Amino acid sequence: MTVTSEATAEPLTAAPALAAVEVTKGFPHRRRGFQRVLGETSFSIREGEFVTIIGPSGSGKSTLLKLLAGLEAPDSGRVELAGEPVTAPSRRLGVVFQQHVLLPWLTAKQNVLFALEAHGGSDRSASERERLAEHWLELVQLSDAKDLKPGQLSGGMQQRVGIARAFALESEVLLMDEPLGALDALTRHTLQLQLLKLSEQEKRTFVLVTHDVDEALLLSDRILVLSQGPEAAVLKDVKVPFPRPRDRDAVESSSDYLALRRELLGLLTSGS
Ligand SMILES: Nc1ncnc2c1ncn2[C@@H]1O[C@H](COP(=O)(O)OP(=O)(O)OP(=O)(O)O)[C@@H](O)[C@H]1O
């Protein structure tokens, strides 16, 4: 099924930071030989926007995020970053995955520093890199644990190191694939608020993949709902109207909240 995206219909008031232009993507399939996962999909994300991609399981959310990150190439169409084609991963596109791969022999701070050194370390002095690492670890409330190694940190703390590391790299766009997906409900709840605060303080563009409708409503300016695959596309582009800065209570007690939540859950279950 190919669904026309409504996302492109909305007038752009700021430069598109990231755009998917008629992208398609498929993979070899055991029985069918080949399966097209994403049908022709187009949308634009403005500079400074927080956009979340939700959709039924297996609809192609992670695949789409990998295309946006330049980690996979589309079969047709293109991804553009500020008008330039994205053909490979770059420092301008940061990525956070569900499982952070922290180097087990390095401390939390050394993990952040290692990434800073690997990604253009020569642009900054050693003391600047130190300052950045400390700054981001403080913002995710890990100053006290900065000298501990991953094996000494809880899952939520490791996830926060990964988030600090991704933010420290200061990419223009931060793409996050279920960054809180592997966490227990309470830790997830707390980290959602930290992510909200960080994203509101930072002037950059965010793209999040999540299964969690409440997380999407709390964090996003816009939610792109993917249709049920195969050949998924953007079924609906939902604007999230809650004013910023946000807090969870204000968002969840807003008169629009329940209606939007119901609409999103309806779209996810109907998928068409
Ligand atoms: N490298 C690959 N090779 C073959 N098939 C793949 C590959 N990557 C993804 N797929 C298939 O593409 C489809 C979409 O996968 P994807 O992980 O993008 O979906 P998703 O919406 O992120 O799923 P979920 O919500 O369950 O995480 C699935 O059927 C998956 O098996």
UniProtKB/TrEMBL annotation:
Keywords: ATP-binding, Nucleotide-binding, Transport
Xref: InterPro entries: AAA+_ATPase (IPR003593), ABC_transporter-like_ATP-bd (IPR003439), ABC_transporter-like_CS (IPR017871), ABC_transporter_ATP-bind (IPR050166), P-loop_NTPase (IPR027417)
Matching Gene3D superfamilies: P-loop containing nucleotide triphosphate hydrolases
Domain ABC transporter: 18-253
Pfam family, one: ABC_tran
PROSITE patterns (UniProt xref): ABC_TRANSPORTER_1, ABC_TRANSPORTER_2
A single GO molecular function term of this UniProt record: ATP binding
SMART domains with a match to the protein in the record: AAA
Recorded superkingdom: Bacteria
Annotated PANTHER family: ALIPHATIC SULFONATES IMPORT ATP-BINDING PROTEIN SSUB, TAURINE IMPORT ATP-BINDING PROTEIN-RELATED
Descriptive protein name: ABC transporter ATP-binding protein
Lineage: Bacteria, Bacillati, Actinomycetota, Actinomycetes, Micrococcales
